[in-house]
Amino acid sequence: MENRIREGDYVLLFLDRKRTYLVKVEREKTLHTHKGFIELERLIGKNYGSRIKSSMNIEFAALKPTLKDYIFKSARKTQIIYPKDIALIILFSGIEAGSVIVEAGTGTGALTIALAHYVKPTGRVYSYEIRKEFIETAIKNLRRAGVEEYVELKNKDITEGIDEEDVDLVVLDMATPWLVVPHAYKALKGSGVFTSFSPTIDQVVKTVKTLKEEGFTDIMTVECLLRRMQVEEGRTRPETLMVGHTGYLTFARKILR
Fold first, then answer.
1. What is the CATH topology of the domain spanning 69-254?
2. Domain residue spans in the chain?
3. Among 43, 64, 83, 168, which one is most buried in terms of CB atoms within 10 A?
4. The dihedral of CA 62, 65, 70, 72: what is its sign?
5. 30 near 37, Cβ under 8 Å?
6. What does the alpha-carbon distance between residue 208 and residue 196 come to, in Å, rounded to a whole number?
7. CATH 3.10.330.20 applies to domain 10-65
8. Can you tell me whether residue 101 is helix, strand or coil?
């Protein structure tokens, strides 16, 4: 795989863990920071992993962006699903290249980016969102992450029904996921996976109750907590601050009636 930076590529300029900059490499374009400016065309032809100094002689690392970088650096108008939760959705749902997914609650497209990344090049994500302004932002984020062609954004209310059939996964990030459960059952193929992300336990209780009524099996709800470690010789310990509760993830499988 090509490891050389070309014009038009995205690069993560890394100063330290709290100060990183996701930039598109273009000629006559300059990144201004509190540690000086960097003329981005100087990156063209360098290998990812190279060092580059700012006008103040401060060293930055030019890193190849990961999926996490595209998600965290996406333009936001809503709270995104964190990578720790996205990782469980991908692992527990078993999606792969070629999978067909229905998503609702596109927001600014953080989860959509990850789903599209794993179903390409032959899969498809159909993402429902009722707010047009969110769709406009999601398009920009999907395009920057290079996965726009694998996603169809739909300005529709999924509680009124799902257009697609024989899908592998229905994943919801919305306030009333239980209203979609009957539609999800119809849309999913046998053994297909239902997943919902809910910030409150009351939402989970209503969703699980409806999943049982509709005949889903292997129903499970989990919460994922991730804690960073401060690693220094003689002073290693958990970091003082952490992202605590983000939401509950509920999973279920469709069994045929």
1. Rossmann fold (3.40.50)
2. 10-65, 69-254
3. 43
4. negative
5. yes
6. 10
7. yes
8. strand
Burial of 17 (0-12, 13-18, 19+ CB in 10 A): exposed
Strands 124-128 and 100-104: parallel
- With 0-12 / 13-18 / 19 or more C-beta atoms within 10 angstroms meaning exposed / middle / buried, residue 200 is exposed
Residue 240 one-letter amino acid? T
Does residue 137 come out as left (phi exceeding 0), alpha (psi in the -120 to 50 range) or beta?
alpha
The letter for the amino acid at 10 is: Y
Pairwise CA distance, residues 214 & 129, whole Å? 24
Helix (H) or strand (E) holding 207: helix 201-214
pLDDT in tens, the chain (257 residues): 678 999 999 999 999 988 899 999 999 899 999 999 999 999 999 999 999 999 999 999 999 999 889 888 776 656 778 889 999 999 999 999 999 999 999 999 999 999 999 999 999 999 999 999 999 999 999 999 999 999 999 999 999 999 999 999 999 999 999 999 999 999 999 999 999 999 999 999 999 999 999 999 999 999 999 999 999 999 999 988 888 889 999 999 999 98
Q: What is the pTM of this model?
A: 0.86
Neighbours of 37 (CB within 10 A): 12
93 with 87: CB under 8 angstroms?
A: no
Domains 10-65 and 69-254 share a fold: no
Contact 144, 70 (CB under 8 A): yes
Q: How many residues does the chain have?
A: 257
> What residues contact 60, with CB distance under 8 A and at least 6 apart?
13, 14, 15, 38, 51, 52, 53, 54
